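Problem 12. The chain below contains 251 residues. Write out its predicted structure in token notation.
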Amino acid sequence: MEFLSKSKQAIFKRLADKKFRLESSLCVAEGIKCIEDCMGFGWIPEWVGVDAQQVAQLESMPTGAFPIYLLPASGLSFLENPTGLVAVFRIPAPALLPANGPVVVLDGIQDPGNLGTILRTCHWFGVTDVFLLKGTVDPYGPKTIQSSMGSIASVNVHRVGVEELRKWKEDSGVALLVAELNGKSLTEIPFFSGNNLGWVLGNEGKGIRAEVAELGTSVRIPSFSQGSPPESLNVAAALAVMLGHHFLIKA
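Solution.
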């Protein structure tokens, strides 16, 4: 097994930069679980790198399908606790917008960990299309992919503008539920029996922009705290509650 070339090491390190990821159409996953899940959903590595002490992890991977290299002794990782196994994947070409819902719309989500958890939550509930509006963190950054634990490969990510979202809403007839602190309680709104729905969540600090919020019905998750509740839920937790509210009642 050959050592990873210095040119490939340089490319790997540059994949921390969003601009370079867009230019190269490459992204990184780390750890056997995340890499195998990405592969299980159809992604094929451009190459895989492994520490000499971690070669045994490759036993479950198909051999000959992609190049495998030994990592340098200094290691190569974007994680605080490297796993000794990295894979570089090609970012898939953008998919066509879906004909209808269910979808999740994100307006300015900035934390890559939150976005990765949201993608994994969408995957769990069978929501295969996620719209990313301006200001939302890159879904193909190392931290986002790692937080999604491979679910990024099972979801169609669409980068759209507000006007494109508005037109798609009109064409699809989707009903958008906009998560806001001053919205109507989920327990008080009529239940939507179908799946032609979209759930809209906003920036962790600033919430949803007015031009986005006006596209749907403002809703909130009621608190059942006996004391003074926190100001809000984490955005990924809020989405899990909203999707659970819909799909579990429907079931």
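Discussion. The radius of gyration is 20 Å. Students who got a different answer should revisit the alignment rule from Section 12.3.
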